[in-house]
Every structure is written in structure tokens, then in C-alpha cells.
């Protein structure tokens, strides 16, 4: 078990945060943004950045090459859909994507929107961590983040109905 600090300051103890979230044991702020048979998307629970989406697999795996073919297709379609919603609804021009396979959780992709204030930390992969920490320390924009979740949910639900 390890301790994880959520965006709302609550500290929880879990074996795998991704399992806890995708199974519904832990409800991230704003709940599920969108869900497929194999993946679960939610706002990052630790860093308050509007439109930051985490896409986690439902299976407890670590690496890209563990995805089945069906999961691979589901994954890329879902990511493209979320990316488009970030652009159309939240006006997010650029997103940084990353995932690390030696995570202490399980397979999850970070979709980190780029906002103007982030460029003072640079454009490289090294800039991502300081940006996240800055957001956690300095940004008290909970309403804005929750609004972003609500808008993304609505848009993705609408897209889902369209097929
Ligand atoms: Zn897990």
C-alpha cells in the first residue's frame, strides 16, 4: 500500500491507484470523463490543470506491447476523440502526451494541455514536472478545472451518441 495525495488534498492508501480509479473504488474529482470497454478517462487527481486528462487501461498492465489488438484500436480512437474535444470545447491548441512504463500505478497516458503560463518552464519533456508542481502549488482554480471536466464529458457524450 502507498499513500497518494489527491487534488482535493485528501490522502488515500492504495495498492495501485489506476486499479482503484478504473474499478470505481476511488472516484477522481469530477468522476469519469469517458469510458470504453478497455479504458477509463478522468481528470488527473493530483494536478489541477483544466483539461488534463488521464487515460488508464482497465487491465493491470504496464507496457504498450501488452495491449491486445482490440485494446490498441480502442486506445487510439479514444485518445483522438478526447484530443479533439480538448481542441473544440476548451480551445486547447497543443497537448503533451506521455506515459511511463515503470510507473508504480498501471498503464496510463497523460494528456497535458499547454497553456501560455507553462512556456516559462520551457518546451522540453523536462518542463512537464515543474509545470505540474507549479499548478499544484500555485493554482487555486478548482472551479475552472471542474468546468473543464463537465464540458469534456458533455462533448464526448454528444460525440458518443453520434457514433
Ligand atoms: Zn492496476
UniProtKB/TrEMBL annotation:
Gene3D superfamilies cross-referenced by the UniProt entry: HIT-like (3.30.428.10)
Keyword terms of this UniProt record: Hydrolase
Annotated HIT domain residues: 17-123
Position of the signal peptide: none
Hydrolase listed as a keyword: yes
UniProt KW Cell inner membrane keyword: no
GO molecular function, one term: hydrolase activity
InterPro entries: HIT-like (IPR011146), HIT-like_sf (IPR036265)
Protein name: Diadenosine tetraphosphate (Ap4A) hydrolase
Gene source species: Halobacillus dabanensis
Amino acid at each position: 500500500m502507498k499513500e497518494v495525495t489527491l487534488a482535493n488534498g485528501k490522502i488515500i492508501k492504495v495498492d495501485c491507484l489506476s486499479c482503484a480509479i478504473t474499478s470505481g473504488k476511488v472516484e477522481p474529482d469530477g468522476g469519469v470523463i469517458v469510458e470504453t470497454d478497455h479504458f477509463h478517462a478522468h481528470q488527473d487527481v493530483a494536478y489541477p490543470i483544466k483539461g488534463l486528462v488521464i487515460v488508464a487501461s482497465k487491465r493491470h498492465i504496464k507496457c504498450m506491447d501488452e495491449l491486445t489488438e482490440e485494446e490498441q484500436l480502442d486506445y487510439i480512437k479514444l485518445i483522438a476523440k478526447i484530443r479533439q474535444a480538448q481542441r473544440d470545447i476548451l480551445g486547447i491548441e497543443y497537448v503533451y502526451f506521455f506515459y511511463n512504463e515503470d510507473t508504480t500505478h498501471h498503464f496510463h497516458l497523460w494528456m497535458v494541455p499547454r497553456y501560455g503560463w507553462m512556456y516559462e518552464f520551457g518546451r522540453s519533456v523536462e518542463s512537464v514536472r515543474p509545470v505540474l508542481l507549479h499548478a499544484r502549488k500555485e493554482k487555486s482554480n478548482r472551479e475552472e478545472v471542474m468546468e473543464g471536466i463537465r464540458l469534456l464529458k458533455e462533448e464526448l457524450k454528444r460525440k458518443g451518441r453520434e457514433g
